[in-house]
Specification:
This protein has 467 residues and is an alpha/beta fold. 26% of the residues lie in helices and 24% in strands. It is built from twelve helices and 20 strands. Helix 9 crosses helix 12. The termini are far apart.
Length: 467
């Protein structure tokens, strides 16, 4: 079979043989020569300072010379042989004949540039010469995906991670130790290959359980960490370096808000910048939102105004335990006494601090005084926690029971929120606080115990709450 030779460069052209070829390590490569043919230049291995010019490479691809009138027909007839990749130009101009076009074939489907019998039969029917030509194609940095670039740069056999969390214009990475020498290059590649990303950061410490933020290093791009995000059709603004925000929790935020009805009351103990509180307020719920971090509290106020719900949310900057013992107890004492049997108002308490929230559940022991309200009026708690246990649902329930001092068998549900790390799950346990836990029954010889309780709660609120 005769072979012709062409040379040229096609902007945006690059070939990948298998969809997952550049995503999983280690891998077994049956045809290493072909894999290397469509990889960046081997000299980029070990590069720590990005040199885009070093990625230039000329590769040889098989093409068919076809009259331009029948190009579309041939593409349909040889759809399993022609290169297939979104955005890829499969047809290029013939530099020697303006009436013809060159159709690029998948070299892994054309071993040794030789057509199979079925392909030759198709060409015969279309009156096309079964002549496979060689085409010299120059590839540049722009033609490679980020995964392909990082696989070529990082040491062979080591994990390539190009995944990140996107927070507005910020890409947030959690790099492994072996990737740190290449961190600035990785950051720049992510900016180059992801439109809209202008800043890349890497977490350098674990989350501080007090304020739920962490230290980070800017790897590439601008140092502006104040950004805008949109979640479940609601806009938020935040300083990513000073507050907690996790885009992977959007589904969970929506799940809880979906449980609420207009007129319900939501107490958000660890509110952050408001991903539970603000959509609840937009749903016409009454909301009490608290966060210990002053920065989160300020951004919560900002986002309440941004979403025009600042008159529907009472915001607090307190320790979670003080918030429960103060504003929450005061409001529940007042509301549950007035709650009538036919009223359908529900009370929900969200405690999204998975590292510590379960330890706060003991606050509900005898939080209120007097006679219990109807069972329907008892507040529902949605408490989050981490578990590394073989049975995480059982583990989270047992720990909640230990804090509450009662059994929750048949009275709770657990929901797997997400896998945080290998063998580490984030869960939500939901339950109505049992009346015998929530209420302290008055003793017969006590004089007006309920009034004393309420005065204490009021005194506390006057002392602790901001005016």
């Amino acid at each position: 079979m005769l072979l012709a030779q062409y040379s040229g460069r096609i902007p945006g052209l690059f070939v990948v043989v298998k969809k997952n070829r550049f995503f999983t390590m280690p891998e077994t490569v049956e045809d290493k020569a072909n894999l290397e043919l469509y990889s960046p230049h081997p000299e980029v291995r070990g590069m720590t300072l990005l040199d885009r010019e070093a990625f230039k490479r000329t590769v040889v691809v098989p093409v068919l010379k076809v009259k331009k009138e029948i190009v579309n027909t041939l593409l349909k007839s040889l759809k399993h042989t022609v290169l297939q990749r979104p955005g890829l130009k499969r047809v290029v101009e013939d530099p020697e004949d303006e009436d013809s076009r060159l159709v690029i074939l998948d070299p892994h489907k054309i071993p040794e540039f030789s057509l199979g019998e079925s392909e030759q039969e198709v060409l015969k029917q279309l009156n096309v010469r079964p002549e496979v030509s060689k085409y010299n194609l120059e590839l540049t940095y722009e033609n490679f995906k980020s995964e392909e670039i990082l696989r070529a740069v990082l040491p062979e056999g080591q994990e390539v991670t190009s995944g990140f969390s996107r927070v507005g214009h910020i890409a947030h990475l959690n790099l492994r130790d072996h990737q740190l020498p290449y961190r600035h290059l990785i950051g720049q590649v992510i900016i180059d290959k992801n439109p809209g990303i202008t800043c890349v950061v890497n977490k350098t410490s674990i989350i501080d359980s007090t304020y739920r933020n962490f230290q980070m290093e800017v790897l590439a791009g601008e140092s502006n960490l104040v950004t805008k995000v949109k979640e479940n059709n609601i806009a938020y603004e935040l300083d990513f370096s000073k507050v907690y925000w996790n885009p992977r929790l959007s589904t969970e935020h929506g799940r809880i808000v979906e449980l609420l009805k207009p007129g319900d009351v939501l107490f958000d103990v660890f509110a952050g910048i408001g991903p539970f509180a603000i959509p609840a307020a937009k749903k016409k719920c009454r909301v009490f939102a608290n966060d210990l971090n002053p920065e989160s509290y300020n951004w919560l106020l900002h986002n309440c105004k941004l979403n025009k719900v600042d008159n529907k949310i009472k915001a607090f900057n307190m320790d979670g335990r003080d918030f429960l013992l103060g504003p929450v107890r005061e409001e529940l004492s007042k509301e549950l006494q007035l709650l009538k049997e036919e009223q359908k108002t529900s009370f929900h308490i969200v405690m999204n601090l998975p590292a510590l929230a379960i330890e706060f559940l003991d606050v509900f022991r005898h939080l209120l005084a007097g006679e219990p309200c109807s069972t329907a009026g008892l507040p529902t708690v949605h408490c989050y926690g981490f578990s590394k246990h073989d049975d995480p649902a059982k583990d989270i329930q047992e720990r909640a029971e230990a804090s509450l001092g009662t059994s929750l068998d048949g009275r709770c549900s657990t929901y797997l929120v997400r896998n945080v790390a290998p063998n580490k799950e984030m869960l939500c346990i939901s339950f109505q606080i049992p009346a015998d836990v929530l209420y302290k029954r008055p003793c017969p010889d006590e004089a007006n115990p309920a009034s004393k309780r309420l005065r204490t709660s009021k005194d506390f609120s006057e002392e602790k709450l901001p005016s």
